[in-house]
Design brief:
Blueprint: H1 11-19, E1 28-30, E2 33-35, H2 42-61, E3 66-70, E4 74-75, E5 86-90, E6 99-100, E7 106-107, E8 112-117, H3 121-125, H4 127-135, E9 139-144, E10 149-156, E11 159-162, E12 169-171, E13 179-181, H5 182-187, H6 190-201, H7 204-217
Parallel strand pairs: 4-7, 8-9
Antiparallel strand pairs: 1-2, 3-5, 5-8, 6-7, 9-10, 10-11, 12-13
Helix pairs in contact: 2-6
């Protein structure tokens, strides 16, 4: 059987059909329903996603036991298997809440997920946000390309609350030192984005976070 947009499948059947369709680069199972997005546009999706991945990659390079993944499938539960544009996770050995399966999938909720909503804003802001919240994704970033806006949600109790910028900078509560100059990111000013991130990496809270990760991984 083919994999088609709108199919209602179990996660196992979804994976079986997805593997059988090498021509499909991205497919997701959200609340038991298959979503096969439209082809990805270059600037409005590919470029923005690369900028977010690059920002997080620099953070990972300075932060042991934290990894960034691009378009990796995530097994959240029996009815939900999204494929986020970018995600950031802490290694399970260092206390992270997700792990890598024997067949090389992420299992469980990553600490941070990024979605670039070029043509999928309603989907990313509603259905997916509900699934990520319920599954325990601690931070969720949505870049609404056509609105020229970026939303950063943080899980507080059972609800997502939107982070408020401090002088134009958003600061992660889960990943100390992870700072985002939002207007620079939206404007494609990568050098300013990385300059702001370097400020965070130089802070004592980041050094303390690194020390805690190393200690957890060595216990």
């Amino acid at each position: 059987m083919p994999l088609e947009n709108g199919d209602r499948l179990s996660r196992c059947e979804f994976e079986r059909r997805y593997v059988a369709r090498p021509d499909i680069n991205k497919a997701e199972l959200i609340e038991g329903v298959v979503y096969v997005p439209s082809p990805v546009r270059a600037a409005s999706h590919g470029g923005t996603s690369a900028s977010m991945a690059g920002w997080l990659y620099v953070y990972c390079a300075a932060t042991p036991h934290v990894g960034v993944l691009d378009s990796a499938t995530v097994r959240l539960d029996r009815d939900n298997e999204p494929q986020p544009d970018v995600l950031l996770r802490i290694d399970a050995a260092a206390g992270g809440q997700s792990s890598l399966s024997a067949d090389d999938y992420v299992e469980g909720a990553p600490e941070l997920v990024v979605e670039v909503a070029a043509s999928t804003a309603a989907y990313d802001m509603h259905d997916k946000r509900h699934v990520y919240r319920r599954s325990g994704v601690l931070e969720y970033i949505v870049w609404r390309v056509h609105d020229e806006a970026l939303d950063w949600f943080v899980l507080v109790g059972d609800e997502y609350r939107q982070l408020a910028p401090d002088r134009g900078v958003l600061v992660s509560p889960t990943f100390p030192g992870l700072r985002l100059a939002t207007q620079a990111m939206l404007a494609g000013d990568d050098s300013s984005v990385l300059a702001e991130l370097r400020k965070g990496l130089e802070q004592p809270v980041h050094a303390a976070f690194v020390a805690a990760l190393l200690a957890a991984a060595n216990t």
